[in-house]
Design brief:
signaling receptor activity, binds zinc ion, two-stranded antiparallel sheet, 2 domains, mainly alpha, Rhopdopsin 7-helix transmembrane proteins, elongated, 410 residues
């Protein structure tokens, strides 16, 4: 064999080297022969080969350095991936530069794709959590609110993003979310329209008084749909927003009383202030009671319904006051008593349905998604708020057509 010169191609050199190495273990004389054949050239005479073939240690170092900030892999972990059982001798194995590094195509080069896979897996989990639904018995205790709803429950997500995505999915809370989400949008629209009227049409006093009602309605609807959305986040988050939901009901009740009492006792300062103070006091008690952790537990459902119905029914006292001083028919015609009674009936019927959990109690599992008691209760609350808005608008119109307070009214 001719002595190889610099003009001999690399592939010939590699081929010759590889053939010789194959026989290394069998006969040391082969290496000697190879060295002789190559004119004393051993591996040392292929500096470009060694340069281009990185050692395993180098691979592991590079992989570790490159990946640490990317996937969180530690160098040791990558070492395991790359094969820590490689001996230092293996570092010097001749490698075919035209072929991918052994192991590299399944480990090192896959580091970015592993990251991509992990990211994809994470996104899938988040996305799946947004619509995964479960049977009631698989839920953790804190999510077992209504055992007559059997299927279609969301599982705990621990992710606000997953919770908010679930707004657009079908599960046991979809109806609860949308009834009050749309209610909030409706009241926001009405409030914007009312408050943007020119002052020649609606004076600022009217706007201020009606704002109490708009605030109560919008906050109640908002707390409600947000609570039903994030209820499955985690026990801590669910409990916090559940309390806000109850506060919202108390705020709606207080907000509803303000314009009603203001116009009903327009020129009678003493009863007006007394009843306003009373409803604020009772409303505050309701909010304080709502903060009690056990208040939200399923066994206190009738107590909750009772507390909020009692708060609403406290309006019977000023209503009776008005009937006594002004007469029943006057109250019907000019104090929108009929609308107020209708509103009260809607709240009460809604609360009874809520407490009794009808119809799912009668047909468990048949109203898991639509027409369950809580949705009906939400619709009744919404209807009652619209009726109340109509009622207080009538009282305000009547009162404002009378002009200023006259002496006989006190
Ligand atoms: Zn609700």
């Amino acid at each position: 064999m001719q002595k190889k010169n610099g003009d001999v191609s690399m592939s010939h050199k590699r081929q010759a080297f590889a053939e010789e190495v194959e026989h290394l273990g069998e006969d040391n004389s082969s290496m000697a022969a190879f060295e002789t054949d190559c004119g004393g050239d051993s591996l040392d005479s292929f500096p470009h080969l060694e340069e281009k073939a990185p050692s395993w240690q180098q691979l592991k170092r590079q992989a570790g350095a490159g990946a640490n900030g990317y996937t969180g892999y530690k160098t040791d972990e990558l070492g395991a991936l790359l094969g820590d059982d490689m001996s230092p001798e293996d570092d010097k194995l001749p490698l075919d530069l035209d072929e991918p590094l052994p192991g590299a195509e399944t480990s090192l080069l896959n580091v970015p794709s592993k990251c991509a896979e992990q990211a994809e897996e994470f996104v899938k989990k988040v996305w799946a959590a947004g619509w995964n639904v479960a049977h009631h018995h698989t839920l953790p205790d804190w999510l077992k609110d209504n055992d007559f709803l059997l299927r279609g429950h969301r599982v705990p997500t621990n992710s606000f993003m997953a919770c908010f995505k679930s707004i657009f999915r079908i599960h046991t809370e979809t109806g609860n979310i949308w009834t009050h989400l749309l209610g909030m949008i409706a009241f926001l629209g009405i409030a914007c329209y009312f408050l943007s009227r020119p002052s020649i049409e609606i004076q600022w006093q009217e706007k201020a008084v009606f704002s109490a009602f708009f605030m109560g309605a919008i906050l109640c609807m908002t707390f409600s749909w947000v609570f039903h959305t994030v209820y499955c986040h985690s026990e801590r988050v669910g409990r916090f927003f559940n309390k806000l939901d109850y506060c919202g009901i108390a705020l709606l009740t207080i907000g509803s009383f303000v314009p009603w009492l203001y116009y009903s006792f327009y020129c009678r300062l003493e009863p007006k202030v007394t009843y306003l103070a009373l409803i604020m006091f009772l409303g505050t008690i309701c909010i304080v009671v709502s903060m009690w952790d056990k208040f939200a537990q399923p066994q206190y459902r009738p107590l909750r319904a009772g507390v909020f119905v009692a708060l609403g029914l406290s309006g019977v006292v000023p209503a009776m006051h008005y009937v006594i001083t002004d007469g029943f028919w006057h109250a019907i015609d000019f104090a929108a008593l009929g609308w107020l009674v209708l509103m009260a009936m809607l709240y009460i019927v809604g609360a009874v349905i809520y407490a009794a959990r009808i119809p799912e109690r009668i047909f468990p599992g048949k109203f898991d998604i639509w027409f369950q008691s809580h949705q009906i209760f939400h619709v009744f609350v919404l209807a009652a708020a619209f009726v109340h808005y109509h009622g207080i608008s009538e009282i305000a119109n009547y009162r404002l057509t009378l002009g200023d307070c006259i002496a006989r009214e006190f």
